[in-house]
């Protein structure tokens, strides 16, 4: 059964949030199965929701709970782990003045961590927030196993994400 959001927050003004309408339809189905694919196709789920719902089934990720006002990541600090917002809302700010809210399904720290850059934003919990945590050491350990062509696609995608954040990209290759 899905956790109930204890924040009682409105999603108004949220820049990104997963629509969990069909969560119950995919609960209990192995994301590696043809049944998963069939259900996702029938429901016409976008890729962000497919990935999020599959991550919800992962027992390999640890959960962290943050209190209202707690800083989850600070702009300019070294990235050690990526967070996926599973429940609640966060405020994402940048020293440049950029500010927005992110809800369930938001991911932060992954692009910066993969690109070996510091956090591009400060992320602060609004109300109680639960995240699933992916240690960057694990991501770096798995990267060499990925097909070289997919590594190139991943690198281009991460550079586009980082460029959009306003962070300075330094090519270390």
Your description of this structure?
There is one protein chain. The protein is α+β, with helices and mostly antiparallel strands and 173 residues long. The protein is 31% helix and 25% strand. It contains six helices and seven strands. Strands 1, 2, 3, 4, 5, 6 and 7 form a seven-stranded mixed beta sheet that branches. The longest helix is centred in the last third of the chain and has 18 residues. The radius of gyration is 17 Å and the shape is globular. The chain starts with 13 loop residues before the first strand and ends in an 8-residue tail after the last helix. The N terminus is likely disordered.
Average pLDDT value?
Answer: 78
Strand content: 25-35%
Shape: globular
Which residue ranges are poorly predicted, with pLDDT under 50 across at least 5 consecutive positions? 1-9
Counting DSSP H or I runs of 4 or more residues, the number of helices is: 6
Describe the sheet with the most strands.
Answer: 7 strands, mixed
Secondary structure topology:
Layout: E1 14-16, H1 23-26, H2 34-43, H3 47-56, E2 62-66, E3 71-73, E4 81-93, E5 99-102, E6 107-108, H4 110-114, E7 122-135, H5 136-142, H6 148-165
Parallel strand pairs: 1-5
Antiparallel strand pairs: 2-7, 3-7, 4-5, 4-6, 4-7
């Amino acid at each position: 059964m899905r956790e109930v959001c204890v924040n009682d927050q409105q999603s108004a003004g949220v820049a990104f949030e997963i629509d969990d309408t069909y969560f119950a339809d995919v609960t209990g189905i192995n994301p590696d199965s043809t049944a998963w694919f069939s259900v996702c196709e029938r429901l016409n789920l976008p890729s962000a929701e497919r990935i999020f719902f599959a991550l919800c089934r992962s027992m390999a990720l640890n959960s962290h709970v943050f209190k209202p006002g707690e800083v989850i990541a600070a702009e300019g600090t070294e990235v050690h782990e990526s967070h996926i917002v599973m429940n609640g809302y966060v405020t994402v700010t940048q020293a440049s003045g950029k500010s927005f809210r992110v809800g369930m399904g938001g991911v932060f720290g992954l692009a910066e961590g993969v690109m070996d850059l510091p956090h591009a934003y400060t992320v602060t919990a609004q109300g109680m927030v639960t995240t699933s945590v992916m240690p960057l050491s694990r991501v770096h350990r798995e990267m060499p196993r990925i097909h070289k062509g997919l590594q190139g696609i991943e690198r281009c995608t991460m550079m586009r994400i980082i460029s959009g954040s306003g962070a300075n990209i330094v090519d270390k290759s």
